[in-house]
Amino acid sequence: MPPGRGSSMLLAGKNALVTGASRGIGAAIVAAFAAEGANVWALARTRSEAFEATLAGLAAAHGVWLKPLYADVSDPAAVSAAIRLAMTDKQPLDILVNNAGAMAQDKPFQLTALEEMEALFRVNFFGAVQLSQLATRWMARKGRGAVVNLASIAGINGGSRLDYSASKAAIISATKTMARELAPLGIRVNAVAPGFIQTDMTQALGQQVQADTIAKTLLRRAGTPEDVAQAVTFLASDRAAYITAQIWGVDGGML
Ligand code: NAP
């Protein structure tokens, strides 16, 4: 059914901006949003014909528009330019998903240079904060909006890589502060904290770490990008109208 009045689709007629849209959880969020009737500016780091073909296929399948945007989220000038380009479409923005993220190198914090930690924070934290600043100014024109940040269970429990865990803890804290500041403007801000999700990021962890992590998960399986995308879709939708400042674990039960 095409989006519009009377549609039962969760995001019918909404316009969303999703970062890290090229693969993994971000690609699943774009697909889930399109299937629920949302138009999407899909932000990727690198221009790619395959990415643009995927967007065109989803747009045709679901009767929505999906437009590529390109920026390295750690480059403030590139992020500003991407948002300015999206704004030339003269559409309101309803939803921002800060999904783009990078994993830290596997080494003790004693051996991690501050420059490396700073570089990771530029992607995982400052990129998301800058996008949130620009996007929520745009949303505020309409007096409504929803931001969903991708945190991590590592940001709650502390993980083995200090810079990654700390960057996600910072996103959790920022989610609550943004929610407080933006509530009077009609903008909700929440985060999901995935556990162990099967993507390129976790493939890099190695077989033993993957098996050990699944053994500690109540549901005894790795999550899929679609598992995370469903939670993000709900939090972005009007069905979550009374939910803000929350951090939702999507982790199969990691106690
Ligand atoms: P992924 O498969 O490694 O994909 C990461 C995405 O982020 C890619 O689209 C990548 O673009 C983009 N990205 C990375 N650095 C970027 C930069 N500087 N500028 C723009 N885009 C950049 O990771 P994922 O597993 O889907 O993770 C998505 C989010 O979920 C991340 O924030 C991650 O920390 C979080 N998360 C994941 C898990 C998990 O188990 N997988 C658990 C907890 C939290 P390119 O294609 O250009 O590299």
Task: Name the features.
disordered N terminus, 255 residues, seven-stranded parallel β-sheet, Rossmann fold, binds NADP nicotinamide-adenine-dinucleotide phosphate, globular, 7 strands, alpha/beta
Structural topology:
Blueprint: E1 15-19, H1 24-35, E2 39-44, H2 49-62, E3 66-70, H3 76-87, E4 95-98, H4 114-140, E5 145-150, H5 153-157, H6 162-182, E6 187-194, H7 200-203, H8 207-215, H9 225-236, E7 247-250
Parallel strand pairs: 1-2, 1-4, 2-3, 4-5, 5-6, 6-7
Helix pairs in contact: 1-9, 3-4, 4-6
The structure holds NADP nicotinamide-adenine-dinucleotide phosphate.
What is the CATH homologous superfamily assignment? Answer: NAD(P)-binding Rossmann-like Domain
By DSSP, the count of extended strands is: 7
| Rg measurement, Å | 17 Å
CATH architectural group:
3-Layer(aba) Sandwich
Helical/strand content category: alpha/beta
First CA to last CA: what distance? 40 Å
- In the CATH scheme, what's the topology name? Rossmann fold
Shape: globular
CATH class: Alpha Beta
Helix coverage percent: 40-55%
Describe the structure.
The structure is a single chain. The chain is an alpha/beta fold and 255 residues long. It has one domain (15-249): NAD(P)-binding Rossmann-like Domain (Rossmann fold, 3-Layer(aba) Sandwich). The chain contains 9 helices and 7 strands; from the N terminus they run E-H-E-H-E-H-E-H-E-H-H-E-H-H-H-E. The chain has helices spanning 24-35, 49-62, 76-87, 114-140, 153-157, 162-182, 200-203, 207-215, 225-236, and strands at 15-19, 39-44, 66-70, 95-98, 145-150, 187-194, 247-250. It has a 7-stranded parallel sheet with strand order 3-2-1-4-5-6-7, sandwiched between helices. Helix 1 links the parallel strand 1 (15-19) and strand 2 (39-44). Helix 1 (24-35) packs across helix 9 (225-236), helix 3 (76-87) runs parallel beside helix 4 (114-140) and helix 4 (114-140) runs parallel beside helix 6. The chain is globular, with a radius of gyration of 17 Å. The N and C termini lie far apart (40 Å). Residues 1-5 have low confidence and may be disordered. The structure holds NADP nicotinamide-adenine-dinucleotide phosphate (NAP).
